Amino acid sequence: MQTFSFNTTPDAIHSLAKHIIESAKACIETKGSFNLVLTGGNSPKMLYNILADQYKNEINWEAVYFFIGDERHVPSNHKDYNGLMARENLLNPLNIKEENIFLVNTSLNPQEAAEDYYARIVKHFNQAIINFDFTLLGMGTDAHTASIFPGTSICKINTKESIEAVFVEKLNSWRISFNATLINQSKEIAFLVFGKDKLEAFTSVQSHPNQLEYPASLIQGNVFWYTNFN
Ligand code: 6PG
User: Fold this and answer.
1) Of 94, 208, 106, 228, nearest to 150 (Cα)?
2) What 3-state class would DSSP assign to 74?
3) Phi first, then psi: what are they for 143, rounded to 5°?
């Protein structure tokens, strides 16, 4: 696990963008593709804009496949749908073809949406292990990540990989999310965590590895933290 702390959010974002592009170049060179899991929320918007603008001509974006690590169970044209934010800030500006985009079909009920999404990803990986090349994650002030919130049915350890429908009481809403096991199979994982209000959760996660109380601590492996707590 490596932590990179920056004085400003733009500095953190530019550094993370560079990291993603370098990983993408290496993957595309060795295996002809790059499987990138996007995160929702507000933190990644600037990152997506920079990738779509400054790095538009840097790599062969046609070799990149895009996924979302979690989704709110709202219509795909709803302002809270993470896939819409990804389309507006990254996928549309880069003219990414639909066959390279894997989003959650929220016209299905939550359980069916989770099953359908998992089935499409299994097919993409040709029924082999689902090991994304790069997974982006945010973190909330309660140390949740993706839609793995404390006390929810998906917040478990030592389980097999899954994509689950999870009802989040505190939000009174359904989410569809990768579980920690699936996330941890990613070759690289990068958190982007910005804001004073997240420092306490960050500190708890760092000092309590693999603790259900702090879901982001369940994320293990080749993990990078890009932070700015000023
Ligand atoms: C979501 C995200 C969620 C997010 C954190 C941080 O669907 O909202 O996947 O896990 O990353 O809540 O959100 P911000 O970046 O907006 O602080």
Assistant:
1) 208
2) coil
3) 70, 15
Q: Write the pLDDT tens digit of every residue in 28-58.
A: 999 999 999 999 999 999 999 999 999 999 9
pLDDT below 50 — which residues of the chain? none
Q: How far is CA 126 from the centre of its chain?
A: 21
CB within 8 A of 140, min separation 6: which ones? 149, 198, 201
Q: Closest ligand 1 atom, CA of 44?
A: 15
3-state secondary structure at position 222: coil
* Residue located nearest, by CA, to atom 12 of ligand 1: 140
Residue closest by Cα to atom 3 of ligand 1: 146
For residue 72, the ligand 1 atom closest to its alpha carbon is 7
Q: Give the pLDDT confidence score for residue 127 in this predicted structure.
A: 86
